[in-house]
Amino acid sequence: MVKQIPNILTLSNLFCGCLALIFILHAPEYIAEFNGAEYTVINPEPVYWASGLVVLAGIIDFFDGFAARLLKVSSPLGKELDSLADVVSFGVVPGMILFRLLRSAYFQDPDVFDVSYLNLAPALLVPCFAAYRLAVFNLDTRQSEHFIGVPTPAVGFLVASFPLIMLTDPFHLAHWLQNVWVLYIIIFLLCYLMVSPHPMISLKFKNFSVKDNWPRFLLVVLTLVSIPVLRYAAVPFVFAVYVGLSLLVPPKNTAGIS
After folding, report:
1. Do residues 137 and 198 lie in contact, with contact meaning Cβ atoms separated by under 8 Å?
2. Nearest CA to 82 among 19, 159, 135, 142?
3. Is residue 86 within 8 Å of residue 61, measured between CB atoms?
4. Could you tell me if 17 and 57 are in contact, meaning their C-beta atoms sit under 8 angstroms apart?
5. In this structure, which CATH number among 2.60.40, 2.60.120, 1.20.120, 1.10.10 belongs to the domain 2-248?
6. Which has the closest alpha carbon to 15: 45, 57, 49?
7. Tens digit of pLDDT for each residue in 209-233?
């Protein structure tokens, strides 16, 4: 039974992802009238719950690997199971959140009465690229200490922060997340980063030398400082810092995906 603890945690990650999908897909829509015109409005509360479940899935995803190493029960099965869970929680769920955000952004235009699914389909590229990225990760032995391309949990956290940023609207960022073209740019940028050949920092510390780990320490410090100041907006800030640091100070002894 002890050997199955990491797998149970991984399945809990998948459970959170599936539950998040239910919340997103069942976010009720209703007709609201403003100044004599009718608009389709999506109740955002279920999407907020989905965002919270992505965060919970990320926490569980960290502890399943930690438990496997602690109990010394790492296995090929666990690695495959972890990727299957991640593609749902950090691929499909973010894709559906972006799908909802795109739909909502299109309906900001009072002249729009319906939106073609072709306009919303780019959001589904996120789970496709996440699945490809996870498949490469399982086969690429070079990613034991560093990542090549942005890991899917980072993408999941970033997208999950968007509904919460729109809820609190710090620094008037909600306006940008209701812009169709901004969302398209975010989608294509995330897809590229997941499969890019660029080495990315991992938070795995082999030692605590400042010289060897200063980008990691800087990332941790900026994360802790930004959370009380930026609140939910800290997530895109830390994501940008993470990508920037990885590009400016790439981890050593790594090569791109061939």
Report:
1. no
2. 135
3. yes
4. yes
5. 1.20.120
6. 57
7. 777 778 889 999 999 999 999 999 9
